[in-house]
Design brief:
Layout: H1 3-8, E1 11-16, E2 19-23, H2 31-41, E3 47-53, E4 58-63, H3 70-79, H4 110-133, H5 143-154, H6 157-175, H7 177-184, H8 192-221
Antiparallel strand pairs: 1-2, 2-4, 3-4
């Protein structure tokens, strides 16, 4: 069987930003082939978790959407099909144009290549630890079970953006405090442009916070769909 034909039989069951779930054909659904596929996908920069559900022959891949895309995962998977153990698959003619792993430029020195591999490994380990913290496994009612959801919420993108916005606001107040206390408050008419700028920035900040709160309330009101393997 040709690798291209086998790749066309891989069905995408679910796809979203940072997550891809595929159904593998029976020819590559055995443990040896799956282990080889997982080893290849974990080498793709940005991929931090690969899970295989043997009963449904479904492969779930979690990755950082800012580092790689679903196309990168698909190219890596297709590139390794002809070399899977226990499968008689012919190598595709254009396999050289689609490498299984994102290769580093040839002009990089061995030291830079080693540093890049170490950085990718450290990034995957960090993402795995963060994901472990966001999935509480402690006993119900324990202190760890109470702190883990708080930590998970603090590590979301919106929480980080809110913290940075507050940090910038406090920094601007600190930098302009002398002007505010010594000039702007004493002569507000003369410095009306400065006050208008302050009010406008506060308006933008409040409107952003209200939009975030409304979005969070709508998300909480939606029913949580049942998890699929």
């Amino acid at each position: 069987m040709n690798a291209d034909d086998l790749a066309r039989r891989i069905v995408v069951r679910h796809r979203e930003a940072g997550y891809l779930r595929l159904e593998l054909p029976a020819e590559i659904g055995h443990p040896a082939a799956v282990a080889a596929i997982e080893a290849v996908l974990r080498q793709v920069a940005g991929v931090y978790r690969v899970t295989f559900h043997a009963a449904q022959r479904r492969l779930a891949v979690s990755y950082d959407a800012h580092v790689c895309t679903a196309a990168d995962v698909a190219r890596a998977l297709k590139g390794c099909l002809h070399a899977l153990p226990g499968c008689s698959v012919a190598a595709p003619v254009a396999a050289a144009a689609e490498p299984a792993v994102v290769a580093l430029p040839a002009k990089l020195t061995p030291a830079l290549q080693d540093a890049a591999h170490q950085a990718r490994r450290a990034f995957r380990q960090l993402r795995s630890r963060i994901e472990a913290l966001r999935q509480p496994k402690a006993a119900p009612g324990s202190l760890q079970a109470k702190l883990q959801p708080m930590l998970a919420n603090a590590l979301t993108e919106k929480a980080i953006i809110n913290f940075l916005n507050d940090l910038v606001a406090f920094y601007l107040v600190k930098v302009h405090w002398e002007l505010i206390s010594q000039r702007w408050l004493k002569d507000p008419v003369k410095y009306a442009n400065a006050w208008l700028t302050v009010f406008y920035l506060m308006f933008l900040l409040v409107r952003y916070r209200k939009a975030i709160a409304a979005e969070s309330s709508q998300s909480a009101a939606k029913p949580v769909p049942a998890a699929q393997p």
